[in-house]
């Protein structure tokens, strides 16, 4: 793991975390993925179907952002524990190129490829 600057990775992950938390807040969600009680979808909509569609779209976006936040938090935890950059499946080092492209990666490219097929 000498090719990876862990301070730079931590900084990048921390910035990503801040951005994701902000985006969740913009959608009316807590960090946990729960919508705040002050979020209302009924006002201003012509009918219930439009309100339901809007709520479904927001919930989908929140779910996606929450998954990304969980991945970033997991990567930060692995940095803290010294496990960052190890494949969770085979235990080998994840390539520096993969970690640069996807710092929250938990699988090496070989294991990820096997899971995708």
Which structural class do the helices and strands define?
mainly alpha
Question: How widely separated are the two ends?
Answer: 28 Å
Q: Estimate the helix proportion, in percent.
A: 55-70%
What portion of residues belong to β-strands?
under 5%
The overall average pLDDT, rounded, is 89
Q: Please trace the helix and strand order, writing H or E for each element.
A: HHHH
Instruction: Count the E strands.
Output: 0
The low-confidence parts are none
What about the largest sheet?
Answer: none
User: Shape, please?
Assistant: elongated
How many individual helices?
A: 4
Give me the Rg, rounded.
18 Å
For the structure shown, list the relevant keywords.
0% strand, single chain, mainly alpha, 117 residues
Please render the helix and strand layout as text.
Blueprint: H1 6-26, H2 48-81, H3 96-101, H4 109-116
Helix pairs in contact: 1-2
């Amino acid at each position: 793991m000498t090719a990876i600057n862990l301070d730079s990775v931590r900084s990048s992950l921390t910035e990503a975390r801040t951005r994701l938390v902000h985006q969740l807040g913009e959608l009316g969600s807590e960090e946990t993925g729960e919508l705040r009680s002050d979020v209302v979808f009924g006002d201003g909509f012509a009918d219930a179907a439009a309100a339901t569609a809007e709520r479904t779209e927001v919930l989908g976006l929140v779910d996606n952002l929450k998954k990304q936040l969980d991945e970033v938090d997991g990567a930060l935890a692995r940095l803290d524990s010294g496990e960052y950059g190890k494949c969770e499946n085979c235990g080998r080092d994840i390539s520096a190129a993969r970690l640069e492209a996807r710092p929250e990666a938990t699988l090496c490219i070989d294991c990820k490829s096997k899971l995708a097929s």
